[in-house]
Amino acid sequence: SSKDPQESISKAEEFLLKALAIDDKNAGTLGNLSQVYTRKKEYDKAIAAAERAVTLDPGSSWALYRYAIALNFSGRPEQAIPLFEKAIRLNPLGPSAFYFDFGIALRDTGKVDEAVATFKKSVERAPNWFWPHAHLAVTYSMLGMNTEARAEAAEVLRINPRFSIEWAAKNTAYDQARMVKVFDAMRKAGLPDTPPSAQP
After folding, report:
1. Which CATH class is domain 1-94?
2. Average pLDDT over residues 55-76
3. Would you give the distance in Å from CA 72 to the centre of its chain?
4. Which pLDDT band holds residue 52 (cuts at 50, 70, 90)?
5. Hey, what CATH topology would domain 111-200 get?
6. Separation between Cα atoms, residue 176 and residue 151, nearest integer Å
7. Dihedrals φ, ψ of 177, to 5°?
8. What is the arithmetic mean of pLDDT over 71-90?
9. DSSP states of the chain as a string?
10. pLDDT tens readout for residues 142-183
11. Do 111-200 and 1-94 have the same topology in CATH?
C-alpha cells in the first residue's frame, strides 16, 4: 500500500471507476467513490455520486450517510441533517462515524447542545477514536465550558499523543476557511499547534 495519502486516494478512484465501468448500478461502489471525491475536495462530483447511490439503494444507511457527508463537507449542513437522521433511523446501531459527522452538521447549523449529545454517542461507540473527543473539545470550547473542553483535549492527547492542529489541518476534507473557528477552539481547549517533538 502507498504511504502517500494522495497517491492512495488516486489509486482508489482509479479502482472504483474501473469497477463502475463493469457495473454502473452498484450503490456501494458509488458511495465509496463519493467518499474519495470528498477527500479530494471535489464536492460536486462527491454529491453527484452519492445522490446516484441513494437513488439506486434508498434504504441503505451507508448510501444516505455518504450523501450527507458530501453535502456537509461542501458547506450544506442544513441539507445533510435530514439524511443523517434517516441513516441513523435505518441503522440505530450504526458506527461512531454516523454520529460524529452528524454532530459536525448540527454544530455548523448552530445546534450546539444537540451536537454535544451526538458527539457523546459517537464517543460511546468508539471511546478510543480521537476525532469525536477533539470535536467535543471544540464544541465545549465554543459553549464556554472550558473545564469540559480541556478534559476532552486531554483524552485526544492520551489516545493520540502526536495530535496537533497542524496535523488536523492537513487531514481534513473541509475547506480550510471553514475550519478557522474550529482550530481556534481546539487551541483554546489546549490542543497544541504542532506535534510535541516539533515544539521548542
Report:
1. mainly alpha
2. 93
3. 9
4. very high
5. 1.25.40
6. 26
7. -60, -35
8. 95
9. --S-HHHHHHHHHHHHHHHHHH-TT-HHHHHHHHHHHHHTT-HHHHHHHHHHHHHH-TT-HHHHHHHHHHHHHTT-HHHHHHHHHHHHHH-TT--HHHHHHHHHHHHHTT-HHHHHHHHHHHHHH-TT-HHHHHHHHHHHHHTT-HHHHHHHHHHHHHH-TT--HHHHHHT--S-HHHHHHHHHHHHHHT--SS-GGG--
10. 999 999 999 999 999 999 999 999 999 888 877 777 789 999
11. yes
Burial of 110-127, coded b for 16+ CB within 10 Å and e otherwise, reads ebeebbbebbebbbebbe
Kindly state the cell numbers that stand for 183: 482550530
160 is written with which cell numbers? Answer: 493520540
Task: Report how far residue 91's alpha carbon sits from residue 142's, in angstroms, rounded to the nearest whole number.
Answer: 30
Give Rg (Cα) of the chain: 17
CA gap 30, 19 in Å, rounded: 10
For residue 54 the three cell numbers come to: 441513494
CA distance 140 to 49: 34
Residue 170 has what pLDDT?
86
Angstrom distances, CA of residue 82 to CA of 45, 70, 121, 170, 198: 21, 13, 18, 29, 42
Average the pLDDT over each of 15-19, 66-70, 105-109 and give the range with the smallest value. 15-19
Delimit the domains of the chain by residue range. 1-94, 111-200
